[in-house]
């Protein structure tokens, strides 16, 4: 009986670790927002640091607001490509 509860708790700890890794990945590479006008969830892919540094050298320093970014609707296909 005791070994079953230990097994369950270790499985839950493993699941929490996996969830933390997924959340960390999403926070590092994607921005998400809810469009209140159409009720859809939208996402924006954040570029890796290396690409950002190259762009800063090539372009003038201009701050982009979230409205100027190319937000895409989070469809089932887009979600599948992010998760896998």
From TrEMBL:
One MF term in the entry's GO annotations: helicase activity
ATP-binding in keyword set: yes
Keywords: ATP-binding, Helicase, Hydrolase, Nucleotide-binding
Name of protein: Helicase
Lineage: Bacteria, Pseudomonadati, Bacteroidota, Bacteroidia, Bacteroidales
């Amino acid at each position: 009986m005791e070994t079953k509860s230990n097994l369950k708790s270790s499985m839950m700890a493993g699941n929490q670790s996996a969830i933390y890794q997924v959340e960390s990945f999403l926070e590092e590479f994607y921005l998400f927002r809810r469009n209140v006008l159409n009720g859809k969830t939208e996402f924006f892919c954040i570029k890796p640091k290396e690409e950002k540094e190259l762009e800063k050298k090539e372009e003038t320093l201009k701050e982009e607001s979230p409205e100027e970014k190319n937000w895409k609707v989070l469809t089932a296909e887009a979600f599948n490509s992010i998760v896998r």
